[in-house]
Write a structure and sequence with these properties.
heterodimer, A: mainly alpha, Serine Threonine Protein Phosphatase 5, Tetratricopeptide repeat, two-stranded antiparallel ribbon, 2 strands, B: 258 residues
Chain lengths: 306, 258
Amino acid sequence: MKPSARITLVVSILLVGLVATSVFALYRLDQIRSRVSLREADYLMSPKIVKRLSLGYDGLMADVYWTRAVQYFGARHIVGSRHYELLGPLLEIATMLDPHLTVAYLFGGNFLAPPPPHGAGMPQQAIQLTEYGIRNNPSDWKLYYNLGFIYYMELKDYSKAADAFARGAEVPGAHPFLKVMAAQMAQHAGELQMAQMMWTTAYQSTQDPDIRDNAAAHLLALKVEEDIINLEKLVSLYRERTGDWPSSFSELEATGLLRALPLDPLGQPYKLEPEGRVEVREPSRFRFLEMPSSSSDRSPDGKVSP
Amino acid sequence: MNSRIVYIASNTFREAIRDHVLYNLIAFALLMSGAAILVGQISLGIERLVVVNLGLAAVSLFGVVIAIFIGIGLVSKEIEKRTLYTVLSRPVERWQFIVGKFLGLAGTLVVNTAFMAVGVFAALLYVTRAFERTDVWILVALYLIILQFLMITAIALLFSSFSTPLLSAVFAFSLFVVGSFAEDLRGFAAMARGISRWLAIGVAYLVPNFSSLNVITSVAHQQPVTGQFILSDSLYALVYTAMTLCGAVLIFEHRNLK
């Protein structure tokens, strides 16, 4: 073998070995880092410092921080974590770098507000974030809608929700539902219809397939709840008339209370349980459906989750 | 335009191309296509924003790096290779040499930016499926970035006219960083008292104000840029460039090349 060929061979082997060693070292480092990253918050810089260090490319840095927030939330959400300490600071940095980054207010609010495991359980932080968004983007009606949504769904604060919807309704081009929602909030009435209206607005006001899918799933669950409430009313009526619980929906059909066998939104027939309880056959097909033991326990508005 | 300037400019342009400056376009293309494909998978609702923010930031940073690292060698390399003496032994004035070198590098950067702009718009089309009327503001941002390049090229040339390449790179890059903080400098000046206040105001007005030429974030949000703003920025950048070039010419005219 020529000396140059020998050198090539030795160096090539050395190179492969070094690459493998470097990959292994990095892998070990990652393991150590995941253990020491418990206090990640210590390494978060203040929004002002990040803004200065971005050298004018603050929009790009905001995108990076927003992506970090999404990744942080997603990684914890998927394992059912109940701790989201960094979510607020990450969103604060992203929105301070780019105060017009409306997605960070809209989605960020929905990450922060719902209770775990659906969200971070920090509705007050979600409200602060959304209010900051409104101050910087006063002509975006979706931010008022989001604010009202958080007040209503998470805090059940009807007057503040009504105020947020009413402020949003004044913005040119706002969804017409905002006026109705403001009025309904003021009356504390029709909560199932209210929830349907909210998720319909959420569905119609976004092009994002994930958000649309989420809103559609909520609407399906609400439709089931509405059906169940109506069917249980008919069952009670049957009992009032006959003195017995019906054993099947056919008995209701026979008395003229129902025209046909009732089907859930996915086409499966509803189940009639003892003592007049109505249930869906496959509850797992409705992601956001609650199955309480009696209709009186039933949540009127379905669930809130991002 | 003076034919000698054109000749020097075209030679500088050719030399830059021969130095494989346009290879950066490959890195840029990879960055843009990677971002366009990846961002939808790792983030939420910011596909368009990322393409515009990342695209324009990359155009700006790649251009700044090219302007500094080629600009610092424009004069010193000619001295080192002794080609400057051949040029100046012909009927070429020193100021013509400086202006020609400036225009050659500026031309290279404009061509480079034009290619990158095509990349930005292609990535945008991939992400959004259709252009919108407001996308025209991206062209305005690109124009302002080119103005930024003119200023940095002139600054690099100024340092190159009297200093070594290494020191010129350090000076030019430092000035780029300071210029990006120009708005903060004004803020400090407003807060200071006495002599330090006047000193801070003087520095804030003397260093190049790159932040005023940066509209990347607002065009990413499809916000319009007013004609008055574009005009004022153009005037400022061109005057600053001319001023810096004058400084470079003055220094080079009096430099002892023996």
